[in-house]
Automatic annotation (TrEMBL):
SUPFAM superfamilies from the UniProt entry: Class I glutamine amidotransferase-like (SSF52317)
Protein's UniProt name: DJ-1/PfpI family protein
InterPro entries assigned: C56_PfpI-like, Class_I_gatase-like, DJ-1/PfpI
Matches recorded under PANTHER family: DJ-1 PROTEIN, DJ-1_THIJ_PFPI FAMILY PROTEIN
Superkingdom in the source lineage: Bacteria
Start and end residues of each DJ-1/PfpI domain: 4-178
One Pfam family it belongs to: DJ-1_PfpI
Family membership noted in the UniProt record: Belongs to the peptidase C56 family.
Taxonomy of the source species: Bacteria, Bacillati, Actinomycetota, Actinomycetes, Kitasatosporales
Amino acid sequence: MTQKILIVTGDAAESLEVLYPYQRLREEGYEVHIAAPTRKTLRFVVHDFEPGFDTYTEKPGYTWPADLAFSEVDPGDYVAIVIPGGRAPEYLRNDPELRKILKSFFDTDKPVAQICHGPLLTAAVDALRGRRVTAYPALELDMQAAGATFQDAEAVVDGTLVSSRAWPDHSRWMREFLTVLRAKAPVT
């Protein structure tokens, strides 16, 4: 039986932060499912850094179908979860079904990969208290308010939690996450 990994996301997620781990984990041999508030075609965005802007810019990105709705997810079917960033976490953190899913992964100490604004979701289930994390640098104060120690690094590993700042750090983020996965939930 193939090990399954869940990606939780929604509209306005960063295209690269969904599709890079989706493809990389499939390449590794995992079965990957994307869950969203409902089964629909999701509309991702592209955040880029342009001269003269104080923050990132946002443009339309790829579209991609959600495999299942949060209400259809059985966390016991999955060995790990990936939480992309973008703007999606800002509203997804209010979804009670998603909060139940996330809490289940932390309660069972399964591997969790989060990137960019994704830690807003793990903060919403009080899963960052006492942990070391990174995130998009503008979230440093949010991470501290959630009880985490913020580190400005490409990737931070704290037990089974692997966090990263943003898509430019993908290679390091996935290398670290795969190290955790191979130890906790290897492809069979």
